[in-house]
Amino acid sequence: xxxxxxxxxxxxxxxxxxxxxxxxxxxxxxxxxxxxxxxxxxxxxxxxxxxxxxxxxxxxxxxxxxxxxxxxxxxxxxxxxxxxxxxxxxxxxxxxxxxxxxxxxxxxxxxxxxxxxxxxxxxxxxxxxxxxxxxxxxxxxxxxxxxxxxxxxxxxxxxxxxxxxxxxxxxxxxxxxxxxxxxxxxxxxxxxxxxxxxxxxxxxxxxxxxxxxxxxxxxxxxxxxxxxxxxxxxxxxxxxxxxxxxxxxxxxxxxxxxxxxxxxxxxxxxx
Length: 271
Ligand code: DGL
Prior knowledge:
By secondary structure, the protein is α/β, with parallel strands linked by helices. The protein has two domains: 7-98 and 212-268, Rossmann fold (3-Layer(aba) Sandwich), CATH 3.40.50; 102-209, Rossmann fold, CATH 3.40.50. It contains eleven helices and ten strands. It has helices at 17-26, 48-64, 75-89, 102-108, 120-124, 126-139, 151-156, 163-178, 195-202, 212-225, 246-257; strands at residues 7-11, 32-36, 70-72, 95-96, 113-118, 142-147, 183-186, 207-209, 238-242, 266-268. The chain has a six-stranded parallel sheet, sandwiched between helices. Strands 6-5-7-8 form a four-stranded parallel sheet, sandwiched between helices. Helix 1 (17-26) crosses helix 10 (212-225), helix 2 crosses helix 3 and helix 8 (163-178) crosses helix 9 (195-202). It binds D-glutamic acid. Residues 11-13, 15, 41-44, 74-76, 119, 122, 152, 188-190 line the site of D-glutamic acid (DGL).
């Protein structure tokens, strides 16, 4: 594997584009292979084994297409798959995952109450429990969780700013606001696309915290450490792969990447 190879980025759908944006900002010379498993999204409420299996298949597809490593740009997939993936591929094929950004939220809270909005899978997984034990518990910070099955499908449908999304957010997050949370950890990579709707409903009640920028910096360090960083040369580009209908994904991918639709090519793959 050489530094010239593209870096794989995986999410169940379009949520990982929020991470890809940070990766492209931080690593402007890298090429990216973005794979959205749109045939199976949402995965957040699926059983642990199925989440693990879908993630392993996606990473295998990116490996087979010549990726030099993979950013698992999905909190739910990361919660169940990072250890088996690293065991399988070894250190020469870096696997970088996402953990809900509890650490910076704990550092920033003034009220001592932090909210985490995530999928059922992420709430069940051990990664979230580990960061709460490591950062929140010793600081005496209370972590309250909120979950919704409707938000990921709304973002997938290009409805992140809709009245429906705002109504779901109102219902889901009001208990956190009432409990005094002043930080809201966006524990799913789809949720940064809901930031405007959250602010429209809740104003400055919560500071919104996600892990996109931190994971992009970490990815740069991991690639550099493995001798896989593409540091110079022409600007990098992104290739978009989906497991579902590419024409259905193209408009929302264009909107979320800020590129005009005719300039977004989406290819269908099987995993
Ligand atoms: N973007 C995924 C995450 O970060 C969404 C999971 C889903 O498909 O439900 O958890």
